[in-house]
Fold this protein.
Amino acid sequence: MNDGENRFTVAMALLMQGQREEAHGALHSCIAANDLEWSPHAASVLAESLLEAGDMDGAEAAVGIAVRSGHPLWMSRALVVGGVLHARRGDRPAAKRAYSLVISLDADQSTVANAWFNLGTTFQEEGDVDMAIDAFGWAIAIAPATLFAARAGVNLGYLLAIERGEVDRARDAFQAVIAIGDPEQSELARMNLAALDQVARGNTSVADPTVDLAAGVERVTGERTPRRWRIFGRNPDG
């Protein structure tokens, strides 16, 4: 284990223990080691952690370090963080450019699926249903067994049911989410299937405000860190 890897290992152990400030110091130390592999990796992790902590300026600086390294994987993962950062600042065009760049770099399937998922959430927030459905579909197709596919599947099913009235396709999307096995997304999918069953049993529709469908719309930066999901509104009045 070289010096850069050792510093990174220490940083990740601290992060896993919840010692965020100490972990950030160790990540900065790893970046300062100028290791071709571990320093950009540390910058990517630091960017995500700082964004989660609400330090957007610090996250932006760490993204810049990872991007300037030119490392295909860690640059790509940092660009996803950069896209989320732009979106939280209200600059959706810049967010979409960052996600699209990650997709074009094609560093690894999980990161590309993450970019497609985040691109889909941006389109969904803009009300561009067709583009959102397409993006979520790509996230699922590229990495079908990942957490990003599960998240995309929940949102895809929601849009198919609410915006398209395609209940059978929505049901298929939710069933596919359950098959992936992520507990949080499976819970959302089961709740949505129960809501669709409510529609099937009664004289109501998915547009009825008493039918409670949920979409887990939240921009994400990585796959390992637990996230809180917010409910994407109530169904509109019919």
Observations:
- The two ends are 62 Å apart (CA to CA).
- The CA atoms of residues 74 and 128 lie 30 Å apart.
- Residues 223-238 have pLDDT under 50 and may be disordered.
